[in-house]
UniProtKB/TrEMBL annotation:
PANTHER family: 2-METHOXY-6-POLYPRENYL-1,4-BENZOQUINOL METHYLASE, MITOCHONDRIAL, METHYLTRANSFERASE. It holds the Pfam family Methyltransf_25. The keyword Transferase applies. This is Methyltransferase family protein. Keywords: Methyltransferase, Transferase. GO terms for molecular function: methyltransferase activity. Residues 37-129 form the Methyltransferase domain. The keyword Cell membrane does not apply. SUPFAM superfamilies: S-adenosyl-L-methionine-dependent methyltransferases (SSF53335).
Amino acid sequence: MKAGEIWQLGDYSTVGARWARAGDRLVADTVAPGDRVLDVACGPGGMAVTAARHGASVTAVDVSPTLLDVARAHAARHDVGVTWLEHDMTAMPFRDASFDVVLSAFGAMFAPDPVAMGGELCRLCAPGGTVAVLAWTPDSVFGRFGPMAGSRMPPGGDRPAIEEWGRPESVRRFLPASWTVETRELGVDVRWPTRAQATAELTGLVPGWVLVKAALAPEDWRDLVAEVDALMAEQGTEDADGYTVRAGYLETRASPPA
């Protein structure tokens, strides 16, 4: 199944909105009015719209037409202009050094070839600019999902090295050696009314989980959902105000040589 078809599954716009504050923080720390900003794998468009509201000139790319429709509606509600493009993020149709800021929040990590993806992000960054990428850390609640699901999947097929984008030593290998790379570990509090709703949304709406469900026997799927729920219970807290889990992620910033 092609990437564009995968991201038509489930309802990522609903569940992804729950950790959108991480992208908002990245924009606040990185984007200045007048910057030419590229949002790579923009999904439902939250970060792109936030950057546009900061006064940037924003272009946003995603492979999913469904998510781009959600993004356009989001921009219209906030009365901001963003250039939306449906395209493969690994080979984008822009000239070298076209953007002052190149961002990707939990998107570039899905690229099948991380070194090629890193090169593409950096190719599009202008001198003096910044490439900034967010990815779940391997030991975070969401970072543990990939190996958990992969251990139950039938053999065969390639899975993106998602967790590697959350390791400082790995992500440096994905970027040109001449670039200055800085990383820091951060976290975002993700909230649901109940833990049961959190487990149901994550396993029912995230496209990757929809694929996993289709590949497993019903009893294996039930066991996996129970394992996810146990992890959510271990990592989060639930009280009268709802359920909250702290999701750790790595922020990588790279700048070209002077």
